[in-house]
Amino acid sequence: MILGEKIRILRNNHSWSQETFANKMNISVETLSDWENSRSLPDIEELIKLSSLFGVTTDYMLKTHTKKAQKLVRCLTKADVNEYLALREKSSKGFALAIFLCVLSPLFLIALVALSELSTINISTTLAVIIGFLAFLFDIVVAVMIFIFTEGLCEKFEFLETEEFETEPGVVEMVKEMQKEYKPTYIKYNTIATIICILSPIPLIISAILNKDLLTIIFICLMLIIVGLAIILYIRFGVRWSSMQRILQEGAFSVSKKKSKSVIARVTHIFWAAVTAGFLAWSLILNAWEISWIVWPIAIVMVAAFWIITGVHKKDK
């Protein structure tokens, strides 16, 4: 598709007559007709004004698309955007619940094993491990089922994660306005979730001061619940923000970052699985509940360092 065809198609998409659009551009109808029929071309200032009126980039206006290329580049309409945001809002509830179950999955195992060793309940340590591990597996299975269901909701829009795409005129402006209105809410709840995470070790510090074994178990479980609640806030209010970033292809979802994102995400997932396994092994095998919690703040610092290093590397490259 050449420039003249794009001008004609975009003008028709806005339901502007040649006279109306010529007035908006402050040109004659004859000049506009020459552009649309490729008898002449707009200069650079006129091209910038065209892009602004249509709500597209100058690159889009100048880029020539073959029919083959047109089939490969998807176009996101306003209806698509509204549908996608609604689906993401719905899926965020299931995703938050699934993550919450994952965070709480070791809770029953920790509590049962610790209570059996303290002789607080009449149950052997072996039986406590078996029951706790079954509860752990049940939580994970339910969480995985929820993950699969929620991922399926947005399957239609998977291309937003990995592919380049174009947007219908007016889409970018509409989403930027949504983003502007939503930003205070996003910042507010993101800040609350961060504060909750920072304060989550307080119960453990209190239990260490009081030096009560039973209290330590209760506070470990309480810490997991607190962290889980913080994660729910992160997800519920972060999903809509990240969805708008995907549509605008900015931040972590810019075209340049789409390729490396999947690799970094896999590394992060493997890392957290290893941290969880290490925490449980250290705590259960060595009965080191009073100190093993240190694994989590160290892990958080390591992940933050990893993201900073990878970010710096990308900038240098």
Q: Could you list some keywords that capture this structure?
A:
single chain; 317 residues; mainly alpha; two-stranded parallel sheet; 2 strands; elongated; disordered C terminus
Q: Summed up, what is this model?
A:
By secondary structure, this protein is mostly helical.
Structural description of this entry:
- The protein has 317 residues and is mostly helical.
- Helix content is 79%, strand content 2%.
- It has a two-stranded parallel sheet with strand order 1-2.
- Helix 7 runs antiparallel to helix 9, helix 7 runs antiparallel to helix 13 and helix 11 runs antiparallel to helix 13.
Class by helix and strand content? mainly alpha
Specify the overall morphology. Answer: elongated
Main β-sheet description: 2 strands, parallel
* Strand percent estimate: under 5%
Q: How many beta-strand segments?
A: 2
The strand line-up of the biggest sheet is 1-2
Radius of gyration: 27 Å
N/C terminus separation: 34 Å
Order of H and E elements: HHHHHHEHHHHEHHHHHH
Mean pLDDT: 78
* Tally of DSSP helical segments: 16
- What is the helix fraction of residues, given as a range? over 70%
Residue runs with pLDDT of under 50 for 5 or more positions:
66-72, 312-317
Explain the layout of strands and helices.
Elements: H1 3-13, H2 18-25, H3 29-36, H4 44-54, H5 58-62, H6 67-72, E1 74-76, H7 78-104, H8 107-117, H9 125-153, H10 159-162, E2 165-167, H11 171-199, H12 202-210, H13 213-248, H14 255-286, H15 289-292, H16 295-316
Parallel strand pairs: 1-2
